[in-house]
Design brief:
about 250 residues; alpha/beta; Rossmann fold; Arc Repressor Mutant, subunit A; 2 domains; five-stranded parallel sheet; 9 helices; 12 strands; about 45% helix; globular
Length: about 250
């Protein structure tokens, strides 16, 4: 399954044109009409590459990229603009932009840049995977083997169970890591919003923010026998991750 490409542009024609070009090449494409939509999307779903318009009303392209670098550092970014300046190009380089293209970019330019970006992303992930296997055991948990049939790769946000693989979004992966590293600990809704999403929220708002994320995670791990029923609601408080070993379960 190819990684999702997110196109962010406030111009409907440009948004549709780019989407059509990439879908015809077989890519999985999603779109956002403004910066806020893009930020909401990358906080809740996995994105392999983003094509972001520089100038948009409200939250501009560079701010979207800054947040993407924090929330989903493995995502490659192509900045697309009709208003190229030396200052914006320099800032783009500082923000780890894969490519900086001027509108109107031809389909060939777009496709070549996308292919290079996804290839670069793949190389980095493979390199990170090899490096993590040597360094992460002394720092943070990288993989968790639940039984002979189920392994959770937290660094790649991947659950392998039998012959199946379940992929998690960045937010889902952060939430599962918190649970895995704190079995039996009750977390309040506010704590989890802060740890997973990175911002403070009011007590009455936190459950509404968290509920869709927990629901999506539960839906995915419901297909994994070893994890079924592990995310438990604590009424009026939050959630706890309850896991028993094979011996305890029997």
């Amino acid at each position: 399954m190819s990684p999702t490409i997110l196109i962010v542009d406030d111009e409907p024609i440009a948004l549709k044109s780019l989407s059509d070009i990439l879908r015809l090449e077989g890519y999985s494409v999603e779109s956002a009409q403004n910066g806020q939509e893009a930020i909401t999307y990358i906080r809740n779903r996995y994105v392999g590459l983003m094509i972001v318009d520089l100038r948009m009303p409200g939250i501009g392209g560079l701010e979207v990229v800054r947040i993407a670098n924090e929330v989903s550092p493995d995502t490659e970014v192509i900045l697309l603009t009709a208003y190229g300046t030396t200052e914006s190009a320099v800032e783009a380089l500082r923000l780890r932009i894969h490519d900086y293209l001027l509108k109107p970019a031809s389909p060939a330019q777009i496709l070549a840049s996308v292919r290079m970006g996804l290839s670069r992303r793949g190389d980095k992930l493979r390199s990170k995977e090899g490096y993590a296997s040597e360094t992460l055991p002394d720092e943070r948990v990288a993989t968790v083997k639940l039984n002979d049939d189920t392994v959770i790769d937290l660094s790649r946000r991947l659950i392998k169970h039998g012959k199946k693989e379940t992929h998690l979004t960045p937010a889902e992966g952060r939430l599962l890591r918190i649970f895995i590293e704190n079995v039996g600990r009750v977390f309040s809704h506010r704590e989890l919003v802060l740890l997973v999403q990175g911002y403070e929220t009011a007590q009455h708002e936190a459950p509404e923010i968290l509920r869709p994320l927990v629901s999506r995670l539960r839906q995915k791990i419901r297909e994994v026998p070893a994890l079924k029923g592990t995310v438990v609601s604590v009424r009026g408080t939050g959630y706890v991750f309850e896991y028993k070993t094979g011996e305890e379960q029997s």
